[in-house]
Structure formats: structure tokens, C-alpha cells
Design the sequence.
């Protein structure tokens, strides 16, 4: 007899069954499974998708980052390097950065760290020569690394801890009559809350992102041993600090993070302070975080926009709108931050 076909139940049903069988699950498990499904099954970017990112707004973003890398590489006496990008989306940032680098004689091998088959296919259209990896392990250790991550860390699963009258407890996800919702677990977690935050008022929420710490630790060790630099761009804050930042976005609007797991983008603001601690532990130099607006201005987005507009006068208005979306304090310029970390002894990067 042929084996029964294996039917994969929808994610919401699988999560609900798991919770019914074993009880509420940590938020990180819910968010991790939801995002893995979400990214594996679609290209979420652009006007028809759920959200838009800086490289999708304008080629200027990737070009300036490419030139930022090229400048560091040049002042560092042009060592052998590899380009590494975490979560490259459609490959747009990479193709713009690589084009800008090529113009000044920098043509590194390209390594993409990406788990989504749909996005890997989109990346292959723009950067066919790339090599794909699921993490840093397979990236060779024979050259310095030029690493960039734009809106990657915000997609990694977080845990949440809630301060109650009795202390700090983990926030878990339960499911009642098919509806997912947060509940307070019964194990106390006061020990993992930094001393300075333990006495926060009742109702305070602390978020941690173990996956981000693990990636940063591995990345920092690589930079320490092989040299290079990493640029991390995301919305975030200098923590650890209390505050709830978990959000869901669908069709360019905010949505309920507990609705439709795997069908909308779940993110949390990035704790740059905690990531920086991992870099410091590997003796890396830290720059920032600084706001995206001033960073791009310092790198010359003004003159770049002017020269693009001069070359295509009919697009001048669109170019100006894109520049303002990237740099304006009421758009991405203030909310988004850039953190750079460099190997000991590397030149000081521009823009900080
Ligand atoms: N950097 C791109 C895309 C941001 S969306 C841009 O700025 O346009 C987040 C990206 O991270 C997607 O490419 C997604 O597939 C990838 N991603 C999310 N979680 C991941 C994980 N755990 N491992 C590797 N890639 C991941």
C-alpha cells in the first residue's frame, strides 16, 4: 500500500494543537515559527507586499553603503575581503552596493545568509554569483569580512518578561477557542532581569532576543579573528531597557501580533546596547548607534541625489522624495539607527 500522503496542517492549527497538548508556549517559539513560515512562503517587500525597506526605496541606500565599505577597505590597505549580508531580502542592497564597490576596484566574493527559498530565488536574480548559507558557519575564514544586516535583527524571535506584584514572569502564548493571546507564565525569572531594571513598576515588560545575541557573538568572534567590519541597520534602542516593541505589519499597516501566525511580519525593536556588549567582549571597536538620517547625510546622500536628478531630470522629484523618506526625522531618518563594529586596529569608519 502506498504511504499516506503527509499533509502539513496550517501553522495556526499546529500551534493551537501544540498548546492544547502541552500548555502555553514562549513568545520566542511563537514568533520564530510564525516568521519562519512567513518568510519561507513569500516575498513580503514592496508596494504589493507588507512592508518596504530602505534599499527598496532607493538605490542610493545600497550605493552609499557600498562606498562606505570600499572606503574602509581602501584605507585598510585593500586586504582580501568577502561581502556577507544577513537577510538580504530581494538582493537589492547587495546589487547596489556591489555595483558601487566595483567602480572603485572592489569585487569581493558574496555570501548571503538567508533561510527563505523564495527570497533566495529573488536574490539569485540580482546577484547570481552569490553563495548561500543558513548561518556564518559555512562562510570561509580566509579573508576579512564586510558584513551588512539591514532589517535582519528585528525579525529574530524575542522573549518577553512581565513585572507583576510577585516579580518577573515570562509572557507566554496561549490559545483559547482558536484565538491566540498572551498569558503570564508561572515561573519566576527575576535572575535574568538586569539589576538596574528589577524594580521597574508593575506591568513593565522586558524584551530579550537570544537569537540576536547568538548571531552577534558568532559575528564578533569572526571579526576578531579574520578582521573586517559589520554595519547593522535597524529600528532600535540602546538597552537593555523596559518597553514593549513587538509589532505585526501586514499590507503596510499595523496588525495584531497574535492574529494569523505566519501570515504577517512580526518584528521587535533591536537592543543595540546588548548587541554592542557582544562586540566589546571580542575587543571590537564600536561606532554608534547613530541615526540613519545624519549617517546618510554624512556619507553624501545630498550630492548623490543631486547627481542622479541631474542625469534624469524627469525623475528629480521621485529622487528627492526617496531621499527624504530615508533621511527625514519624521520618516526613517530618526527611528532607524546604524551600529558599526570593526576589528581591532581597523580604520575609523565614515559617518559616525
Ligand atoms: N535586508 C532586506 C530584507 C529585510 S526582511 C531589506 O532591507 O530589504 C528580513 C530578511 O531576513 C529576509 O530576507 C528574511 O528572509 C531574512 N531572515 C529572517 N529570519 C532569518 C533567519 N532566522 N535566518 C536567516 N535569514 C532570516
Sequence:
Amino acid at each position: 500500500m502506498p504511504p499516506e500522503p503527509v499533509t502539513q496542517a496550517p501553522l495556526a492549527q499546529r500551534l493551537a494543537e501544540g498548546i492544547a497538548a502541552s500548555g502555553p508556549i514562549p513568545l520566542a517559539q511563537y514568533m520564530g515559527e510564525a516568521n519562519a513560515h512567513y518568510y519561507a512562503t513569500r516575498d513580503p517587500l514592496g508596494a504589493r507586499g507588507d512592508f518596504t525597506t530602505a534599499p527598496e526605496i532607493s538605490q542610493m541606500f545600497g550605493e552609499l553603503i557600498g562606498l562606505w565599505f570600499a572606503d574602509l577597505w581602501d584605507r585598510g590597505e585593500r586586504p582580501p575581503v568577502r561581502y556577507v549580508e544577513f537577510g538580504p531580502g530581494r538582493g537589492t542592497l547587495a546589487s547596489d552596493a556591489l555595483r558601487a564597490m566595483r567602480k572603485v576596484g572592489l569585487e569581493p566574493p558574496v555570501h548571503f545568509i538567508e533561510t527563505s527559498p523564495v527570497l533566495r530565488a529573488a536574490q539569485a536574480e540580482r546577484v547570481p554569483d552569490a553563495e548561500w548559507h543558513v548561518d556564518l558557519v559555512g562562510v570561509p575564514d580566509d579573508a576579512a569580512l564586510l558584513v551588512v544586516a539591514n532589517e535582519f535583527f528585528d525579525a529574530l524571535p524575542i522573549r518577553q518578561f512581565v513585572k507583576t506584584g510577585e516579580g518577573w514572569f515570562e509572557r507566554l502564548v496561549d490559545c483559547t477557542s482558536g484565538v491566540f493571546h498572551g498569558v503570564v507564565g508561572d515561573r519566576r525569572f527575576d535572575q535574568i532581569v538586569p539589576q538596574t531594571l528589577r524594580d521597574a513598576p508593575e506591568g513593565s515588560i522586558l524584551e530579550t532576543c537570544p537569537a540576536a545575541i547568538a548571531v552577534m557573538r558568532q559575528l564578533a568572534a569572526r571579526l576578531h579573528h579574520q578582521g573586517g567590519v559589520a554595519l547593522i541597520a535597524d529600528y532600535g534602542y540602546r538597552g537593555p531597557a523596559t518597553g514593549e516593541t513587538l509589532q505585526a505589519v501586514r499590507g503596510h499597516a499595523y496588525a495584531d501580533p497574535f492574529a494569523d501566525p505566519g501570515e504577517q511580519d512580526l518584528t521587535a525593536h533591536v537592543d543595540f546596547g546588548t548587541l554592542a556588549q557582544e562586540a566589546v567582549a571580542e575587543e571590537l571597536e564600536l561606532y554608534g548607534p547613530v541615526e540613519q538620517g545624519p549617517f546618510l547625510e554624512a556619507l553624501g546622500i545630498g550630492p548623490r541625489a543631486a547627481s542622479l536628478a541631474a542625469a534624469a531630470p524627469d525623475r528629480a522629484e521621485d529622487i528627492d522624495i526617496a531621499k527624504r523618506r530615508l533621511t527625514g526625522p519624521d520618516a526613517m531618518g530618526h527611528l532607524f539607527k546604524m551600529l558599526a563594529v570593526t576589528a581591532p586596529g581597523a580604520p575609523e569608519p565614515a559617518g559616525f
Notes: The CA atoms of residues 2 and 8 lie 18 Å apart.
